[in-house]
Amino acid sequence: MKAICVTPGVADSAHLKEVEKPSINDVPDGRGVLVKILRVGVDGTDREINAAEYGAAPDGYDYLIIGHESFGIVEEVGPKVTELQVGDYVAATVRRPGNSFYDQIGTYDMTTDDVYFERGINLRHGYLTEYYVDSPEYIIEVPSRCRNIGVLMEPTSIAEKGIVQAYEIQRRMKIWRPKKAAVMGTGTLGLLASLFLVLRGLQVTSFGRKVPPYKNAELVEELGAKYISTKETSISEAAKEHGPFDIISEGTGNSGVVFEAAENLGKNGVLILTSITGGGRNLEIPADKINLDFVLGNKLMFGSVNANREYFEIGAKDLAQAVSQFPGWLDKLLTHPVQGLDNYQQMMDLLTSAKDAIKIFVEVAEE
Ligand SMILES: NC(=O)c1ccc[n+]([C@@H]2O[C@H](COP(=O)([O-])OP(=O)(O)OC[C@H]3O[C@@H](n4cnc5c(N)ncnc54)[C@H](OP(=O)(O)O)[C@@H]3O)[C@@H](O)[C@H]2O)c1
Ligand SMILES: [Zn+2]
């Protein structure tokens, strides 16, 4: 079968390779699930792996099959698989357990290990191929009504984890009644976070840089949320009108925005950090003021990375609700289809050139 691979450590090495089709017997004890891949989403991670910024091949290989955002259909199950059936639509988690205690209890997204095993990213092959085999523990059923947008499951799990954990942490409040939320960034993750906060009944204000008319701003407003360009209105000015924010989800990739968000978090509020900031930027911030407001206002901020199956399952339910509540909205996020694995170069080019892309994805196969 075909697979899109890179040679880790070598920039611009994306290529198509013929690899062996996996078998359900690759997983021991009759627990293998063979999934035919239908679509795979790509994002900045794939671009950065192809730029040789990170990514490693599994032991015994000199190539890595990339792709971590999978959607497919179960084609065969081992005799001891009871959780899934042939014909189920599914998505798979990305990280696989390492050695820490947290890995051993299914919360591999909370690992304390320094090495991550991530399908399509580090030390494990990914999904930009025709089939994969895995244990049902890592495979989540996607409701059939979500078939058209099932490729959004992995980014959904990232947005959901931050929000779900924020609610869990806020159990410190005994009764917490959040009313207003802010989302920093209206890329793929910011749009999904805006959606999930709207579904939870919050009044949402989402911030991007671009000045409307702007497609992502329209998408925000279609949810009944408010879009604000930070080029026109500062976060502080907007917070006076639309805050105080009980919950803020930050995903701009810009660490400066984190501290502006912190300054505008409401009392008892929670700030979710998800931006991966690989740079080495130093900033001057009003440290005394931010600290004092956090202390006097009982505020908190926390980081959130990756997701385990719990957040995929919550995501599947929320996507199904969104399909009913906002018909067609999620489909509009699927802006840039690429036809077939053969067009891997077009996929890579779009990752650098398509500035208006929300989700670039490869149509790997028909059912
Ligand atoms: N924690 C995790 O597990 C995880 C997983 C995947 C990705 N990530 C990270 O999550 C972040 C978001 O991902 P994404 O795919 O949604 O990225 P994206 O498409 O690049 O979106 C970033 C958004 O932030 C906005 N932005 C940037 N600077 C801003 C500013 N100063 N004020 C207001 N808005 C600003 C951008 O607006 P304009 O387009 O108008 O400039 C854009 O809407 C990235 O940092 C990514 O690396 C985290
Ligand atoms: Zn991704």
Brief characterization of the structure:
The chain has ten helices and 19 strands.
Q: Can you put this structure into words, describing what you see?
A:
- This protein has 367 residues and is α/β, with parallel strands linked by helices.
- It has two domains: 169 residues, Medium-chain alcohol dehydrogenases, catalytic domain (Quinone Oxidoreductase, Chain A, domain 1, Alpha-Beta Complex), CATH 3.90.180.10; 147 residues, 3-Layer(aba) Sandwich (Rossmann fold), CATH 3.40.50.
- The chain is 28% helix and 25% strand.
- The protein is built from ten helices and 19 strands.
- Strands 3, 5, 6, 10, 11, 18 and 19 form a seven-stranded mixed sheet that branches.
- Helix 8 links the parallel strand 16 and strand 17.
- Helix 3 packs across helix 9.
- The longest helix is centred in the middle third of the chain and has 17 residues.
- It is globular.
- The two termini are 16 Å apart.
- The structure holds NADP nicotinamide-adenine-dinucleotide phosphate and zinc ion.
- NADP nicotinamide-adenine-dinucleotide phosphate binds next to helix 4 and strand 13.
